[in-house]
Amino acid sequence: MRGKVVGAILRSRAVVSRQPLSRTHICAAVTVAKSSSTAQNSRRTFSSSFRRLHEPKAEITAEGLELSPPQAVTGGKRTVLPNFWLRDNCRCTKCVNQDTLQRNFNTFAIPSDIHPTKVEATKENVTVQWSDNHTSTYPWPFLSFYLTSNARGHENDQISLWGSEAGSRPPTVSFPRVMASDQGVADLTAMIKEFGFCFVKDTPHDDPDVTRQLLERIAFIRVTHYGGFYDFTPDLAMADTAYTNLALPAHTDTTYFTDPAGLQAFHLLEHKAAPPPSEEKEAASSAAGEAAAEGGKSLLVDGFNAARILKEEDPRAYEILSSVRLPWHASGNEGITIAPDKLYPVLELSEDTGELHRVRWNNDDRGVVPFGEKYSPSEWYEAARKWDEILRRKSSELWVQLEPGKPLIFDNWRVLHGRSAFSGIRRICGGYINRDDFISRWRNTNYPRSEVLPRVTG
């Protein structure tokens, strides 16, 4: 059994329907299993269960190949796959470079009237001899998939929604485990994929470069106008409220990028009292007692859970926030005016499934609410007011005190973050990681490559 990864009971909890977890489920899900296991044994599978076998068939028709797989399929969308489509998707060594897995031929050099001259079906695959004298072999799992589906989509989102109850035993992995093997990286990325965040305990904190090395176990650190790996104190080195000691409401970062940062990390290296502002005031400060290093608790809110609540309580508000597109910007620093390629809504839905795909919310970085043909600015403000109220509910807020040696890494497309005001000087390091690179690392450490490739190549 894999360490720190949600077990079968949690997996059965209608992950696709994105139901919230109770305190019991959260605790059970994040319990650390101390026994080690190999990456191969711990890897999950995309494969569906086997069904009743029968004699496979492949017959030439005017439209293409009419196919009957050895495993009975349910919910079929078609029985025939077109000739040109099949020829274009030949994966033999002549057609696909086996080192790069890239197509090796010009698709449009294939005759438009390409057709089979001979077909042979076995229980493993279908072999086709084509009219251009090429021979292709197609595994039945590949053919069966496209008999029942139109396209490869994203992996099923195995996510567990949460609220304030997640603070009882938050998802956590150990630094030595992550640094020692890809199995540790698998644990870390699976936790982030599942819950949207994870702590890494026992991380050395005397040198910030160790935190950089930790993040690079996932992927390279993204460089923005703030730089790459950051190590800062509240000195307004950049014109952003993150570089102050002010309280910050729940928000996502880099709303103004076309592709917002995928992961974000914070590691509190130090929180100490501020030195006296001047010698003249030193005596007064000493008499009153030096200002202690206090406050600065971090706030996490599961944006997907908040969106679920919004949809249940006010479907119209959900519709408005997922359809009205807004301008976002970063303009506080001299010579920098960043805005995404187009307007984006607060709640971005998948074009394929209609499910929530990404939360983009930072009221401070929001531009002017536009006048729309369907919804007025007043209607958007009312919907956003409801959204804001849900985000600020005690049941939505997870408050945690960051501490040296325990970095926090979270999904910036899902989890909103903020903080309470603080006194003293906090030194924090961290960085951003691209979403695509994170998902790639998650796939390749949690699944065998033989299952990953069909998901991404089609």
What does this structure look like?
By secondary structure, this protein is α+β, with helices and mostly antiparallel strands. It has 2 domains: 55-149, 2-Layer Sandwich (NE0471 N-terminal domain-like); 162-271 and 292-451, Clavaminate synthase-like (Double-stranded beta-helix, 4-Layer Sandwich). It is built from 14 helices and 18 strands. The chain has helices at 8-11, 23-29, 39-42, 83-88, 140-148, 175-180, 182-195, 208-215, 279-288, 303-313, 315-323, 377-391, 435-446, 449-457; strands at residues 57-60, 64-68, 80-82, 116-121, 125-130, 135-139, 172-174, 197-201, 230-232, 248-251, 263-272, 298-302, 347-349, 356-359, 397-400, 408-411, 415-419, 425-433.
Task: Give me the number of helical elements.
Answer: 14
Rg estimate, integer Å: 26 Å
**What is the overall shape?**
elongated
Number of domains: 2
Low-confidence stretches: 1-17, 21-51, 280-289
The chain-level mean pLDDT equals: 86
Strand content: 15-25%
Distance between the termini: 30 Å
